[in-house]
Amino acid sequence: MKTTLLKPEDYTRSPWKNGGGIFTDIAGAHRAGSPVKDWNSLLWRFASTPIVAPGPFSHMPGIDRLQMVVKGRGLVLKSPTQEFDEREPFTTVRFTGELEIVTALEAGPVEVVNLMARRGVAEIELVALREPGERPLSAGTHLVYAAHGDCRIRLGGENFAISHEYTLKVELTEASSLALVSGVAVLASIQLVG
Predict the structure, then answer these.
(1) 189, exposed or middle or buried, with CB in 10 Å at 0-12, 13-18, 19+?
(2) What residue ranges define each of the domains in the chain, with the CATH number in brackets?
């Protein structure tokens, strides 16, 4: 098990693909040997971003997306065929980057976290940990993000305190378990395929 504490001052900023806002990039991976780290070389990415006005989402062919509101409430994603309800914070929705989506804000601005991965390259999961308890973790990369104040977790017999908006990056070569001790955390899990 390898753990790395990622600090907010080390996060980078990048524009949304459609230029409509700014991501705070927390962690990610690109194809090895890619001359440029861009949307074409992206393997996976975990980022936060404010949504302050209704508008269209970026078109991201070949990308699977998971999203969760971590501040504010009342977000709805509308596509021509369905609606994704994120009115309550810490609700995860899954959609494809090809889907035409426009946001509706029913109660003002929100902040969301996004976990994105190139389809066929990685399996992804995004869950909120709000109640103390244990959950299994598979081999892969896991990000524990303190989205709502400080939190404490226990991982493989070790205790970790994670300050607000910090992220504990956990790289596992074999299965383990994680327990939320206190606070609220967002758990993003990435398993590369093959």
Answers:
(1) buried
(2) 12-119 (2.60.120.10), 124-192 (2.60.120.10)
